[in-house]
Amino acid sequence: MNKNKPVLTLIALSSVASAVLPLTALAEDKVIIQAQTYSENEQRIKIKDGKVIFEHDFGADHTLNLEYNWDSVTGASPTWDSTTGASSTVESDAVSGPSQCVDEDGKYYQLCRDTRKIDGIVGDGHKDLNELVYRNVALEDFRNSLSALYTFRTPNARDELNLGLSYSKEDDFINSGVSAEYLWNTDSTKNRSITFGASYMKNEVYDYLDKKWNNFDLSNMQIGITQVFNPTLVAKFSLYTMLEKGHLSNPYFNVIRKLNVAQADQPLYFKYYIARDSRPDTRKAGGVAMQASKSFNHDNAAQVSYRYYQDSWGVNSHTADIKSYHHLGDKFRINPALRYYHQSAANFFKAHDAKDYIFDQTGFATADHRLGAYHSWTTQLGLEYLASQATTWNILLGRQTQSSGLTMKWLHFGVQYKY
Amino acid sequence: MLYRIKKATVMAVVLSFALSSCTIVPVKPWQKGTLAQDIVKFGGPNPMIKKFEEHIYTSKEGTKGGGGVSGGGCGCN
Amino acid sequence: MKNIIIITLTLITLINPLTVHAIEIGDTISPEIAAKLNLTPNKVAVVDFFASWCASCSKEIPDLNQFHEQQDNQNAEMIGIGVDEELSIGIAYQQKLSIAFPVHNDTNQQIIEYFNPLGMPALYYIKNNKVIGKRIGAVDQIKQVIKQDLKSLAGPQ
């Protein structure tokens, strides 16, 4: 993986992960310009990200929301590599692909079988584990995306139909999606509504080793019920399911596999190989999500949420979040937030720093830390300047610390103009 | 897996009962001024900030979902 | 899927529906409310309930303003009822939208509670203290709709 090679943003930030339906239009004409800088510790990923949103009502029943997003990713992401390959200025084992048996003092040549025929194995293999290292590899990428959301409100009941389209493109990754959502007001005073939503995303990922495009798709269904409890409290309860199908392995992550390279009639002879990340072709997931919003008085409000998730890869997670808003005089508003996240590991995950980090020749395997067990705390503090009834400026600082040692920080700033 | 699904279902039912057992005071359409405030809306005053956050979380974590159906507000309009 | 259905049905069942008694077409409004609305005898009053926080109301108000300023029907009058509880917020909003028609600020929400509409915005046609028509919820092209309503209301009378 050299720096000139376009690198899939699956490692960093990518729309593929945003398996969410678009936010419902809020029925206010507005333009929002928002920018973000994001960085990780240990000289890892840095992102610059910009969004422009235009939202306009056409009469009382139709709203159109258009969004353009641009982001650039630079830095590095860690994966397994060989010291010889990685130290090369040309290419690493992970790029060169498997080679034929190499003579090693005459002995290995006699035993060797052709590892090129073993799916997912790259490089020549190493007798010494010290020749393999978990290290940062450079990356760089740019992404453009466009999305549109159309909302139609039924004339009397004011039910809402939302239809969304999205498209994003990088050199080695293309994502396109459609979504539909229906909000049904179940009572005449609209104190309760049920929302049905579904989305479908098609993804194409370029495999730099096999030099071909792989596909995977994601289907998402959700049902939610929202209840107004009193003039200051509203809560929402949702159930969701997701199905990912296709080539779900990440082409930019590697693992180490231990292989017997001797032929069948020879004594065992083990070597360690860089091998490609390998995941099942199907991932079924689902869970519940709840959130509540409470106003304490005109100037103070808080929102809490909880989500439970589980999937067929053995991963489950708990997410709890609390956020509050406080007016400071007429012109300023602060917004502190605290979020806790905990997840268990996928059943084919081995951490690079675990006691046992080596996989057998066969079976699914990943060292992607995002599929490992960890917890994280996120803190955020936002400040808004309410310049006028129409214009609001905002700045927000965020920081996340993961138990794995990764820390990220980000800064958002932007302006919202309602007209 | 099956055990977890059952556990999640039980938890979901318990939570939904807990929520629905909260006193529901019928709120008239003209009493929704507070719920219509920007700071009370799900997603907050600037929905783009929430989008940025979700983008970070979903791409840096191994799990995602549950935040999509964001309709179902206060019925203020 | 089965779980989803069970939980949803549970929630729906547990939450009791509202019983609402609202002013309907044909009802006569009380003298106190009529006095507050300051209705002109023999004219059709187009009474619109709105609030600063109601986005759909804001969409309709420019149209209502136009109706008020352009209408050549001497037999109708436009009356606004602002239901913001804080007077200063209500007045600031009315100034921002340059509301040209007379507005009664119903800060204690007595009038709207009396009418008890099922949604906001709410628009009533009242003639000689009798409700002769209504439009509840946001209406697209409200100016044209009011003109047509007035025409059809005038027909049989």
What's the helix and strand layout?
The complex is a heterotrimer of chains A (419), B (77) and C (157).
Chain A: E1 30-40, E2 46-58, E3 62-82, H1 83-87, H2 93-96, H3 107-111, E4 121-126, E5 132-153, E6 160-170, E7 173-185, E8 192-207, E9 212-230, E10 233-246, E11 254-260, E12 270-276, E13 282-297, E14 300-311, E15 316-328, E16 332-343, E17 358-359, E18 374-386, E19 391-402, E20 407-418
Parallel strand pairs in A: 11-17
Antiparallel strand pairs in A: 1-2, 1-20, 2-3, 3-5, 4-12, 5-6, 6-7, 7-8, 8-9, 9-10, 10-13, 11-12, 13-14, 14-15, 15-16, 16-18, 18-19, 19-20
Chain B: H1 2-20, H2 47-60
Chain C: H1 2-14, H2 31-37, E1 44-50, H3 55-70, E2 76-82, H4 87-96, E3 103-105, H5 110-115, E4 122-127, E5 130-136, H6 142-154
Parallel strand pairs in C: 1-2, 2-3
Antiparallel strand pairs in C: 1-4, 4-5
Helix pairs in contact in C: 3-6
Query: Largest beta sheet of chain A: what is the strand line-up?
Result: 1-2-3-5-6-7-8-9-10-13-14-15-16-18-19-20
Order of helices and strands of chain A: EEEHHHEEEEEEEEEEEEEEEEE
Radius of gyration of chain A: 25 Å
CATH architecture of chain A: Beta Barrel
Beta-strand portion of chain A reads over 45%
Number of strands of chain A: 20
> How many domain regions of chain A?
1
Beta-sheet strand percentage of chain C? Answer: 15-25%
Q: What do the pLDDT scores of chain A average to? A: 85
CATH class of chain C: Alpha Beta
Structural class of chain A: mainly beta
Largest sheet, strands/sense/barrel of chain C: 5 strands, mixed
In terms of quaternary structure, what is this? heterotrimer
Poorly predicted parts of chain A? 1-26, 86-100
Can you give a write-up of this model?
- The complex is a heterotrimer of chains A (419), B (77) and C (157).
- Chain A is mainly β.
- Helix content of chain A is 3%, strand content 60%.
- Chain A has helices spanning 83-87, 93-96, 107-111, and strands at residues 30-40, 46-58, 62-82, 121-126, 132-153, 160-170, 173-185, 192-207, 212-230, 233-246, 254-260, 270-276, 282-297, 300-311, 316-328, 332-343, 358-359, 374-386, 391-402, 407-418.
- In chain A, the strands form two sheets. In chain A, strands 1-2-3-5-6-7-8-9-10-13-14-15-16-18-19-20 form a 16-stranded antiparallel β-barrel.
- The longest helix of chain A is centred in the first third of the chain and has 5 residues, at 83-87.
- Chain B has two helices and no strands.
- Chain B has helices spanning 2-20, 47-60.
- The longest helix of chain B has 19 residues, at 2-20.
- Chain C has 157 residues and is of the alpha/beta class.
- Chain C has one domain: Glutaredoxin (3-Layer(aba) Sandwich).
- Chain C contains six helices and five strands, in the order H-H-E-H-E-H-E-H-E-E-H.
- Chain C has helices at 2-14, 31-37, 55-70, 87-96, 110-115, 142-154, and strands spanning 44-50, 76-82, 103-105, 122-127, 130-136.
- Chain C has a five-stranded mixed sheet with strand order 3-2-1-4-5.
- Residues 13-20 of chain C have low confidence and may be disordered.
- Classes of the chains: A mainly beta (419), B mainly alpha (77), C alpha/beta (157).
- Chains A and C meet through strand 9 of A and helix 1 and helix 3 of C.
